[in-house]
Amino acid sequence: MYERRRHALATLLLLPAVFSASQALAQGAPIKLGAMIPLTGGGATVGESGQIAVELAVRNINASGGIAGRKVQLVIADYQTEATVGVSEAKRLVFQEKVDLLVGPTYSQVTLAVLPMLNEAKIPSVNVSGSEKLTPGVGPYAFSMLANAEAQAKVMVDHAVRVRKAQSAAIISDNGAQAKTAVDALKAELAARGVKLAGVQEYQYRQADMTPQLLALRRGNPDVVLLFTSNGEDTGNMVKSAAELGWNVPVIGSFGATFSGPAFKIAGKDAYRNLVAVNYKGFSYCPSDPPATGFQQFVGQVKAFKPEAFERQPLAYLSLWYDAVYVLKAAVEGTGGKTDGPSVAAWLEANSGTFRNINSGLTASKSTHFLVGQDALTVVYPDRTREGALLERVGC
Amino acid sequence: MDELVIILVRGIGLGAVYSLVAMSFNIVHNSSGILNFAQGNMLVLGGLFAFFLLPQEPTVARWLLLLPAAALLYAAVLALQGYVTLLPLRSSVEQHSWLITTLAVSVIIGAVILIAQGPHALSVKSPFANFRLLGTRTPTAYALAALLALGWYAALRWFHARTITGLAMSALAQDLEAARAVGLRVRRLQLYAFAISGAIVGSAGFVAAPVMSISADSGIIYVVNGFIAAVIGGLGSNAGALIGGPLVGVAGMYAAFQYGGQFQNAVSLALLIAVLMLRPEGLFGRARARRV
Predict the structure, then answer these.
(1) Which residues of chain A have pLDDT under 70?
(2) B251-268, pLDDT tens digit by residue?
(3) What is the pLDDT of residues B183-195, one digit of tens each?
(4) How many A×B Cβ pairs under 8 Å?
(5) B189-217 as b/e, with b when 16 or more CB fall inside 10 Å?
(6) Does domain B2-278 have CATH number 1.10.3470?
(7) CATH 3.40.50.2300 region(s) of chain A?
(8) Using a CB-CB distance cutoff of 8 angstroms, which residues of chain B are in contact with residue A213?
């Protein structure tokens, strides 16, 4: 009995020491960052950009001491641009890898599919998706670096009305979840601005020949075509098909239309002769502006990190993934090292405006978790670049 | 009306690519009962051959020289694939490991393309100028694909009717066991079939490269539509493949034009279901009894 009492006393005395040792171990333990990226499938081109950006961000963060003194351990999950694969990869990240934080996905249909699991596990995430359905109710701990579909739609229609004086417009988009909400937003905005809807068409990712869709839209004789796309290849295929039909209609593209490298390869150097697109103001310039040295540094880093892939990278898009990692870093450090969803989300809702990196002026709140709002967008010429990735604003 | 003509011409051109994939399915299926699901990515490999060996501004002479080279190279590649596929099979009609091996080859090809070339689709320029049709420029690759489909159809007809090897391969299609019993070298003939299918699909990929999406994941579109064309036309019938391909191509493009791009793939599947329900042997196939 005396022995048992001695053992109980020893256990009681040792417990605090064991507890603080495990805490110390946890605090020193790396932060596991999951990255859901489409390395294969129809979205592989943007997936490559995501991977480069996230790996570069993790390397830079670890070189400067990690997040709240903890090194970052990156776990990449390829969701193959498929929602079903995304769900199983999210399960792996949450239950096997036990990630603390997550960046991605980018395709909205995949983000919407994995959010319930992330919500239940209370894992904070910053994705690069733009569907209107990504509300704080749907993703209480999820934020997005992409300007949402509604914001882009407003900017596109405003340009069509104000600059092109369009009386009618046609819409063509891919068949992703973000595009579907974008089409609804475009229709609503056109109706609000009194512009006639001349036709709506849809294409599959990587569809080489879009002439049937464009022939259908041409029947409506629109003044402009509004192109909602997620990558430069589809942009190239669309303008190439329009050129083959001899249809010289002005095109106003979404952010994805600024990924000009692949578009030039498919449609040639005149790909953007009649196409302008939405871009982040932070990635635009007027010829009279001074050089953007901060962005130049980022461009130089990307080139040094992946020289063989540099030429084909949409650098503005890359910066969204890069900053997604840094946003999570800022939030974790802002909460004193906490990585749980509620703490990180509360900090971002209150403090995203203080974030400073490649992108700044973020505007998340309790009512919206889109970190980039309409005021941060403008319309640019995607084929006029400076500092490797800044695009000339229309109307300089 | 002009729009319908444009869609008809492009649909036939795209459908010709499906016809070629369907014919490559048929020749292997007729000799061994195997459906080679790697054909889609083999077609993409044919496009890759064009990307690597044609210069930025290709000449007609170089293109003509490389076309038979593409056919020969992929004949060899498919013969090798055939050897690997047939190896575990004593009787390919009774066993189904070919389903796994052909799909595995397709996945491996896709992965190798992704690792070697990255995720971006590659573009090939044609040495032939686009031809004008009702005020539009139509890629000559569509017309060449249609000519190639007709050419292979005629060549296969002649081969099966006028050569001993072709006749022997036709015998395999009629009764594999009987052919083996009369002393035909079944395994060798099956390898020849794989080689010929490689020549078809390699030349098809080379010719259609300017209008194809050449990337790691684009093979699936061609293998699915080629398979649908083969089944609609009648599995085993090259006449059926020749008709089935353009049927799928035109129907898909017309559906996109008239009802929306979201229906382009759905309509070919609907056609497949309709044919299987109304005429399961396909438009040009023959209903056969099977001993169970």
Answers:
(1) 1-27, 388
(2) 999 999 999 999 998 999
(3) 888 889 999 999 9
(4) 97
(5) bbbbbbbbbbbbbbbbbbbbbbbbbbbbb
(6) yes
(7) 27-148+296-376, 149-279+379-393
(8) 256-257, 260-261
